[in-house]
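Hi there,

I know you've been waiting on this one. I reran it after we fixed the sequence typo, so this is the corrected version. Both the input and the resulting structure follow.
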Amino acid sequence: MSQVVIRSKNDVVNFINNHPQGSGRGKIIAWIALGSIFIDAYDFTSLSIGLGSLKAEFNPSSFQLGALTASIAVGALVGALVGGRLVDRLGRYKLLILDLILFVAAAVAAGLAPNIELLLVFRFLLGIGVGIDMPAALSLISEFSRTRDKGKYVNFWQLIWYCATVISALLTLPIISLAGEEHLWRWAVGFGAVPAAVILVLRLIYADESPTWAAASLSLRKSVDILRKNYDDEFVVEDAHSDGPTKQVKVTAIFSKTYRLRTLVASVVSGFQAVQYFAVGFYLPVIIGMILGQHIVQIVIGTAIINVFGLLGGGIQPFVTWRLGLRRLAIIGCAICIAVLLAIGLLPRDASPYFIGLLLGIFIFAHSFGPGAQGKSIAALSYPTELRGLGTGFAEAMSRVGSIIGFFVFPLVLAAAGVSGTMLWFCLVPLIMLVTLLFVRWEPSGKNVEDYEDTAVRSNA
């Protein structure tokens, strides 16, 4: 057992970043933090499978349906804008506990909602939980991982997301068999409280605060207490006069000269990948229904099969992150997405529906391999501890703006231009990401971003 002398926050950061094995308990904490990503994805996608039963029960207008599907994204936008700042002020752990309590309560309430107005309110509250959760979870994962593993563990969020989409689709099959289609949406939405409660219990038992956040915002002694619980080394705190929190930073810090290009890349990729996913990915059941037929079992099975491609892409990319880097992964994924959307858009009307389904699967694979994961991951790895919650919160807010656009714009374009025309129009989305990535050559993977010396972005607040 080696002795580690801690004199400053940078000593804490360097110890974690350069530890030869990493923390075994820290890896458990990272996976528990990733567990809430499963809940985020489940809550976002569960309603899409049950839209038919919801329409039959409430007979909503087009405006009500659009507002309902977008309400969780609007809530996530509010949660991300507020939550990113709170994550830096109050810590990662507290916010991760609070948002899970909100997940459980709002999911149960949404499943029991007596009318569409209250359902909209509860879905909005679920969205607030999602918006808070992403910056808190990804910041905690980054700050508990050594440099070589940061990109890998942060990027696992995409694999977890697609696990949730596949499970939410497959879960409807036994629900249909046992309870029928009449209240399918209630079972699908309300079930989200179950994994949320499980993750909440695990988080209360095993999770801990980020040691780097504690060093920057509480004290070195608090940080070392956390390190002692998670590593086997012997720690000694020296230079006690430096023991104490740093000044708060300005909200505009992520747009300062040092960080503005990083913020641009993270925001563009995070925002436009959300347009791409929530246009095509969220509406997969609708697209499959138009291609294969409207039978609910066909739609559910088709949705699950195509989302398996997302599992493959999301599962492969964490293990090549260190070798390729986040930027190159995003570039590869965007290029494939453009090619696939062009192919679907240019196919003749009598093309095999199964071939179109295969192309959609390749699209989902490329999305999860590339820009789908990298927007949030670029943000999580581009800022020092003092700015990480703020930076990931802003990128998450841009993601939610993108999801709102995808929710609303895609069905309008689909109704006007059909599947082929819609795919051609949506080629612009990955193209914008690709051009941005080619012109701004920021690669956060493997970088030490903790040297935070820009006093122009500090505040006395």
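Quick highlight: The chain has one domain: 3-447.

Best,
R. S.
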